[in-house]
Amino acid sequence: MIRKALIVRGGWDGHHPRAFAEFFRAMLEAEAFSVSVSDSLDSFADGEALAKLSLIVPIWTMGEISELQQKNVCAAVRGGVGLAGCHGGMCDAFRGATEWQFMTGGQWVAHPGDNSVDYTVRITDTRHPITSGISDFPVHSEQYYMHVDPAVKVLATTRFPTADGPHVGNGPVEMPVVWTKLYGKGRVFYCSLGHQIEIAHLPAMRELMRRGFLWSTGNL
User: Fold this and answer.
1) What is residue 154's three-state secondary structure?
2) Which of 27, 56, 139, 144 is the 20 to 30 A CA-CA neighbour of 198?
3) Per-residue pLDDT tens for 134-191?
4) What is the DSSP string of 18-83?
5) Ramachandran class of 42: left when φ > 0, alpha when ψ lies in -120 to 50, beta otherwise
6) Global pTM?
7) Please, what are the domains in the chain?
8) What pLDDT score does 157 carry?
9) Strand arrangement, sheet containing 33-38
10) Which element (helix H / strand E) includes 145?
């Protein structure tokens, strides 16, 4: 059976949606997926077509999703279609869409220090097939502070505070970076890295995304 993936790219250009779409397209095609890339949220208007997919990869920072589009994506994932993505393209996609946030497991709220923070991603679950064999690794980029669903299964974290900000007085916290969750019958994977396309080329992130795509479709 051919595994079909849909990548929907757009929203804020600062997150390089076209570059990420092509990077993920090549990654998925190397894993024998048949990949379609769309520049329009209208791709979410056909619920029957979405239900026939194996995987949906959103790359759409900010923007607005219609009630019908959100309803169709959520129904497809509840029915067993995988959902996987990274950074703002998935968990800062539609700030007013609470069901989207319920499905994805989190929402970006801040990145103290902006794009010049040196921090470490710590693998906290070394037995999960997505993270097995991957070591802690350094990152120089945005460090996402997120509001996270307590039901997610956290696979990697980063320590706050690093940069100064209004959060510092709260003391150290471990912020989830990589997680999975279930939404109905669907598997959801998220990685908060990916402000710039160069970050996607880090060996650890590249492998996390590859495995996350496979896990989301039940192939890992």
Assistant:
1) strand
2) 56
3) 999 999 999 999 999 999 999 999 999 999 999 999 999 999 999 999 999 999 999 9
4) HHHHHHHHHHHHHTTEEEEEES-GGGGS-HHHHHT-SEEEEEEES----HHHHHHHHHHHHTT-EE
5) alpha
6) 0.97
7) 3-216 (3.40.50.880)
8) 98
9) 33-38, 3-11, 55-61, 82-86, 186-191, 173-183, 153-160, 117-123, 137-141
10) strand 145-148
Contacts 24+ apart (CB under 8 A), 172-176: 174/122, 174/124, 175/143, 175/144, 175/145, 175/146, 175/148, 176/106, 176/146, 176/148, 176/152
The answer to whether residue 1 scores a pLDDT higher than 90 is no
142, amino acid identity: E
Residues 6+ apart with CB under 8 A from 1: none
d(CA 122, CA 156): 5
**Are the C-beta atoms of residues 178 and 69 closer than 8 Å to each other?**
no
Q: Does pLDDT of 113 surpass 90?
A: yes
As a whole number of Å, the CA-based R_g of the chain is: 16
| Residue type (1 letter), 15 | H
Please tell me the distance from the alpha carbon of residue 88 to that of residue 9, in angstroms, as a whole number: 12
191 beta partners: 86, 178
Q: Is the dihedral of CA 75, 80, 86, 87 positive or negative?
A: positive
- Residue type present at position 58: P
Instruction: Output DSSP code: residue 135.
Output: P
